[in-house]
Amino acid sequence: MSAGPNYHATVLVLKKTKLGEADLILTMLAGDGSLIKAVAKSARKPTSSFATRLDLFCESEVMLVRGRNLDIAREPQLLNSHDAVRANVAATYAAAPILDCLAQVALPELPVEHLYAMATSALAHFDGVVEEYMPAITAAFLIKLFALLGVRPVLDRCISCGKALDETIQASKGSDVLVAFSFLDGGYVCGACRNTLDCVQIEAESLRWAQVLLGATFDEILAMKVPVEASFAVLHFCNRWLRETQNINSKALNQLLTCGLF
Ligand SMILES: [Zn+2]
């Protein structure tokens, strides 16, 4: 970003907070993956151009004027309103944790390469998707987010000895296999190592699906037709991972997990 008094940024609007009588504070992900918070003056007046151009899920080009505390957003030019997400209640619920988690992990003046592209690609993939396959996009985004930020759990092999999770699943009978997982140490723990680490019981399937979503593109994930139960198992796992390892409590993710729309 330039050092001058004004600068332009491509932004994805993550959060809107009321300020005073008619203003808004916008929390936005910038194109370079950093966080921008700026004031949109008079944005809550019905005639404001901000209402449609800087709404949640909107991608816009915006001019920012440096302020003493917060910068001022001006002259928004809409690039993509992601109507498929905004016009469908289920899609809005499913995609809201993407915005909420970005607002909590992105940091001012700390660019994260690929973050903006990954976020907007995830939102674009909601277009035309049957509702039951929407949560898979969000689950995949979150597990990919952990990888991008370098806080990815070890899903496919024991964090202590390296034994593959698949070996444990294949050796077990029945479909609801529970395995040990250590949130403290950051991954799956095999039966032989479980007494040496602080573990909880977790469904092996949630780890296996998380690994599948991590390794596939959004296009591939939609083609897989991931069962909604599997998507929710991964979302529950991500929610716990966020809380226990990143100290992040996502209200939108909790709402998705309890909304009953899927
Ligand atoms: Zn082990």
Biggest sheet strand order reads 1-2-3-5-4
CATH class of the largest domain: Mainly Alpha
The CATH topology of the largest domain, please? de novo design (two linked rop proteins)
| Radius of gyration (Å) | 20 Å
| First-to-last CA distance | 41 Å
Average pLDDT score: 94
Q: Ligands bound here?
A: zinc ion
- What is the name of the CATH superfamily of the largest domain? Recombination protein O, C-terminal domain
State the total count of DSSP E strands: 8
Total helix count? 10
Q: What is the SS-derived class? A: alpha+beta
Q: Determine the fraction of residues in helical runs and give it as a percent range.
A: 25-40%
What proportion of the residues form beta strands (DSSP E)? 15-25%
What order do the SSEs take from the amino end to the carboxyl end, as H and E? Answer: EEEHEEHHHHHEEEHHHH
**Largest sheet, strands/sense/barrel:** 5 strands, mixed, barrel
Parts with pLDDT < 50 across at least 5 consecutive residues: none
Q: Give the total of domains.
A: 2
CATH architecture of the largest domain: Up-down Bundle
* Gross geometry: elongated
